[in-house]
Amino acid sequence: MPDWTYHPLRGFAARMFGRRRSQRAALRAFATLTSLPGGAQVVAAVSGLPRTPPESARRLGAVVPVRHAGDAVRALPLLGAGVMEIGPVTAGDVPAVRDAVARRRCPVLVRTTDPVVAAALEPHVDRVIVGVSPGIVHLTEPGIEAARRALAEPDAIVLATTGVLVAAGPGWFQRVIEAATPTEAAPGLRQVGRDPRRWPGWLWGLLVAAGMIGGGLGAAVITLAPVLLWYDNDYLGMHREHLAALNGHLVSFLQHDRITMAGTMVAIGILYAGLAWGGIRRGWPWSRTSYLLSGAFGFPTVLYFLFSGFLEPLHAAVTVLLFPMFVLAVARRPDVPRWSPVTDGPERLRVRALTGQLLMIITGAGLFAGGLVVSVVGLTDVFVPTDLSFLGAHAAELRQANPRLLPFIAHDRAGFGGALASAALAIVTLSAWGWRRGSGWVWWTLAGAATAGFLPAIVVHMVIGYTDGEHLAPVYFGVVSTAVALALSHSYLCAPAPAEAELGRRTTAGAVAADDPPAGGHRRGGVDPNG
Questions:
Q1: Do the Cβ atoms of 82 and 60 come closer than 8 Å?
Q2: 509 versus 169: which is more confidently predicted?
Q3: 136-139, strands of its sheet edge to edge
Q4: What is the mean pLDDT of residues 60-77?
Q5: Residue of 182, 153, 180 lying closest to 527 (CA atoms)
Q6: Which end of the chain is less packed: N or C, by CB atoms within 10 Å?
Q7: pLDDT value of position 10
Q8: pLDDT tens string 125-151
C-alpha cells in the first residue's frame, strides 16, 4: 500500500490540508471503507500483504492515543497490525475506549496508571497494563531492523508508536512482516520439470507474457504490411485499395489504431513477465493479485464483439490460447516466500521514491480512466471529434459508404480501450504494492512497459500526420509523468539489495546500541521497552 498519505509534509494530501489533517482523514477513510459490508474482505483480498509468520502474528502492532483508537482498531489490523495498545487512558477516556474496542479486529491492550480505570476496562479488553510491562517494546524509529530484532525475542510484543507510522506510513507493517518472514532461494527455469501438470504458476505467467508480446509484435507486422487480413476483406467486402479510394486517411487511421493496440499488448506482456518472474516466483502475494486483476479485466474484453458486431478470429484465437494459461498462473496463491529483506536506505532517496510512486499511481489511474473512455466511445460513437477532423469526414458518410465499416473500426477502438485499462490496472497495483528498495525488477518492468506503450503510439501519430495537440495531450502527460516518476525512484528501486550476512551485521549493531540505556531510562536504537 502506498505510504505517501501518511508521510509528514511529503505527500500531496499533506501539502493540501496539513500533516495531521491528512493523516486523520486517511485513517478515517480507510476505517470507513473497511466497515462497509464486504469492505474488510475486499481490502484483505487486494491488500497484497504477505502472510504473517505464526510466531509473530499477534506480536506486531501499534500503540495509538485514545482519540484515534476507534479508527485505528478497525483499519490497522487489515494493514498487518496483529495487536493494538491504547493509551495512556484516564478516567474520562473510559467510554471512548469501550466504544472503540467493541469493533476491534485484533487483541487490544490498554495502558493506564489508574487502578480504577484498569478495573473498569478489564472486562472489555484483552489486557490492561498498569505501570511498566517489560515484555512490550515500543519502537520510536521507522527502520525495520530494530523491529526485526525485537520480534526475534519469542515473547516480546512489538508496537510501533504514532511517530513511526507518521514517518513510515502504514506500509511499515508489511515491510517488517517481509523482513521477519523466513525465505529461500527463488527457483530458476532449470529447476522446472518437463511435466506441465507440475509447472508453477509463475512459469504459466511467463508463457502468457510471451504470448502477449508475440501477439503484439505479430499484430504490428500485419499492420505495417497488408493492414487487412483475408477475413477483414471478407467481412468488409473491400480491400485496402478500396478503403484508400473511399477516404485518403482511412488506411492510415486503421494503422494508427492497430499499432497503438500492438504496443499496448507488448506493454501488457512486459508487465506480466515482470509480475511472474519478479513477483509470483518469489512468493509475493500482491503480485498474483495484480496479475489477476489485470487479466480478469482484459480477457473478457474479447466479448466486446457482442456490441460492435465484429469478431476478429485472430483476437479470439489468442484469447482462447492464453486464457487457460492465465488461469493456471493465478490459480494458486504463492505460499513460499523467496524474497530477501532489505533496509529502507537513505531517507532522502526514500522520500524521492515516494513522490515517484505517487506520480506512477496517478499515471496508471489516468490510463485506466482513458481506457474506459476509449472503450465506451468505441462501442457507441466510435470516433472522437479529432478523429473526424483527421479523416475529413462524418461518421454518417462512412456508414453510408459501407455499413460494416463502423463496426469494424469500433472493434479496434474498443479493444484498444480494454487493453489499455488492463495494462493500467497492472501499473497501478505494481506501483502501489511493489515499491520497495532494491526491487530493480519493478523499475525495469515499468520502464519497459512505458517504452512499449508510449513510443509506438507517438511514432505512428507523427508518421501519419495525426498530430492534434488535444488528441495527444494525454499521451504526452503520461510520458512526462512516467519519466519523472522513474527518474525519482531509480536510485531507490535499483539499489543493490544487501546480502543476508550484511543485514545480520547491521541488525546486530543495532541490537548492541539498543541494549545500552542512557540516562533518563530510554534506550538508543529506536527502542523503548516500556513506552
A1: yes
A2: 169
A3: 127-130, 108-112, 83-86, 60-64, 157-160, 136-139, 527-528
A4: 86
A5: 153
A6: C
A7: 40
A8: 999 998 778 788 888 877 778 888 888
Rg (CA), the chain: 27
pTM for this model (two decimals): 0.81
For 229-271, the pLDDT digits (tens) are 899 999 999 999 999 999 999 999 999 999 999 999 999 999 9
Phi then psi dihedrals of residue 130, to 5 deg: -115, 115
Sign, CA torsion 475/480/481/486: positive
The predicted pLDDT at position 529 comes to: 43
Query: Which residues touch 243 (CB under 8 Å, ≥6 apart)?
Result: 228, 236, 250, 251, 254
Sign of CA dihedral 7, 11, 13, 15: positive
Return mean pLDDT, the chain: 83
Q: Phi and psi for 160 in degrees, rounded to 5?
A: -85, 135
* Among the listed residues 31, 33, 8, 3, the one whose alpha carbon sits nearest the alpha carbon of residue 19: 8
Report how far residue 283's alpha carbon sits from residue 334's, in angstroms, rounded to the nearest whole number.
5
> In the structure grid, which three cell numbers stand for residue 369, read together?
480512466
Residue 222, C-alpha cell as written in the block: 500485419
Question: What's residue 521's pLDDT?
Answer: 32
Q: In sequence order, which residues have a C-beta less than 8 Å from that of residue 32 and are 6 or more positions away?
A: none
Is 80 exceeded by the pLDDT of residue 285?
Answer: yes
Which of 8, 386, 342, 358 has its CA nearest to residue 168? 8
Report how far residue 207's alpha carbon sits from residue 192's, in angstroms, rounded to the nearest whole number.
Answer: 13
Q: Are strands 60-64 and 157-160 parallel, antiparallel or unpaired?
A: parallel
Q: What are 109's strand-pairing partners? A: 85, 127
Establish how many alpha carbons lie within 13 A of residue 436's alpha carbon, considering only the half-sphere containing its beta carbon: 22
Interacting residues of 394 by C-beta distance below 8 A, sequence separation 6+: 388
Coil, helix or strand for 137? strand
Residues 6+ apart with CB under 8 A from 49: 79, 80, 173, 174, 177, 285, 286
Q: DSSP assignment, residue 133?
A: -
Q: For residue 314, how far is the Cα from the chain centroid?
A: 31
52, amino acid identity: T
Give the separation between CA 212 and CA 264, rounded to whole angstroms: 9
Cα angle 292-297-298, degrees, rounded to a multiple of 5: 100
Confirm if 101 and 73 have CB atoms less than 8 A apart. Answer: yes
Query: SS3 of 48, please?
Result: coil
Grid coordinates representing 189 are 527455469
Query: pLDDT at residue 166 above 80?
Result: no
pLDDT digits (tens, 9 = 90+) for 182-223: 777 888 877 787 778 788 999 999 999 999 999 999 999 999
Q: What is the dihedral of CA 439, 441, 445, 447, to 10 degrees?
A: 70
Residue the block writes with cell 478500396: 242
Q: Which residue has the cell 494459461?
A: 325
pLDDT, one tens digit per residue, over 347-357 is 888 889 989 99
Say if strands 157-160 and 108-112 run parallel, antiparallel, or are unpaired.
unpaired
